[in-house]
Amino acid sequence: MKKLFFYLTAIALLFTACEGDDYLAGQKSGGSGGKGEMPEAVSGRVVIAYVTYYGKAIPDASYLTHINYAFAEPYMENGIYKGVGLQGSESRFQQIVDLKKKHPNLKIGISFTNAKEDSRGGCFSQLAKSADYRRAFAEDCRAFLQKWGIDGVDMDWEFPGLSWSGDANAYDRAVDVQNHVLLMMQLRETLGSRYLLTYAGYCFDKTAVAGGHQYIDIAAVAPYVDFVNIMTYDLDAGDEGGDHQSALESPKAYSDCKRAVQTYLNAGMPANKLVLGIPFYGRISFGASPLSINYKDILKLDSQSYKIDNWDEAASVPYVTYNGKYYCGYDNAESIAAKGEWLLNTGMKGMMFWDYDGDDESGTLRNACWQATMKK
């Protein structure tokens, strides 16, 4: 039961991290990050950056095949679907879209979230109950892509059958999981083959609970999606015993990269539709301040009290200690290389990371993701 609390709390942090977590702020990126030694892109492989509406950096698209812009959301008011809209300013989004002018092969997707579950009520759960609303939402998504000249939709319903606000209108365990499948099916029908359709997944398949089910039915949505961005991070935290948040393999943690990916393979999702998630931050805790720390700020920690780049050989990840005690787990270039070697041998599609602003000015992590994914 204790582990159950840990992972439910971890998933909840996937939402709060988006707007209120410690790794929110960013700076203008700079430096070459080894760009001159980058391998060429390999057809079919992807390196995807999540870029936030509240971030400050303008991405160096030389390291990327895709950007998912976070976030937009559907709006419901008194149970009536009202359309979609960007979070944050259009000017920020325009800056990201303009990257396609210099990088015409770059794919940009818009990530739709229900994280706010705002006062207009219900968001995905209420929307997905209506065939008319599912169709209207899909048509609005297509119109949004056409208006901005971008390439796809990334669905971040985290997750069917769950609510972090406690709003009874925000989830329905009896029908959410199946309605999510219907929503994805409608999106694929409306978007056709011209546009990408992806989703952000976690380390669980459809799960039976009191009153119905939770999470995403992996097998049922597999035919409709181009690939899945697996959030293989926030899988544990230092304040709950020092288990790593994104270990390649760690029996102590409630999940790890290998087990999460195996969940998708067991459900029938092809390996070449799987994208591994890399955190550009360290997870310190799930409930106590501070919650997390950007990679670039890990590098600036006081060396008198903190020691970075401790290495767990079994888990293939680094960690930070504070006065000799475990402080946080994170990823560095070495762990990204290890994950890259494993995922390529598994036949996976590539890597994504949350989020771009967490990297240092030299682009250490984004360069590592490219190197690991495009290795011949």
Rg from Cα? 19 Å
* Helix count from the secondary structure assignment: 11
* Oligomeric form: single chain
* Helix and strand run: HEEEHHEHHEHEEEHEHEEEHEEEHEH
For the record, give the distance between the C-alpha atoms at the N and C termini, rounded to a whole number. Answer: 44 Å
**Shape assignment:** globular
Sheet having the most strands: 8 strands, parallel, barrel
Strand percent estimate:
15-25%
Structural class: alpha/beta
Low-confidence stretches at least 5 residues in length (pLDDT < 50)?
Answer: 1-35
Give the C-level CATH assignment: Alpha Beta
Arrangement of strands in the largest sheet: 1-2-4-5-6-9-10-16
User: What CATH architecture label applies?
Assistant: Alpha-Beta Barrel
The domain count comes to 1
| Total beta strands | 16
**What helical percentage do the residues reach?**
25-40%
Structure characterization notes:
With 376 residues, the protein is an alpha/beta fold. The protein has a single domain, classed as Glycosidases (TIM Barrel, Alpha-Beta Barrel). 30% of the residues lie in helices and 24% in strands. It has an eight-stranded parallel β-barrel, surrounded by six helices. The N and C termini lie far apart (44 Å).
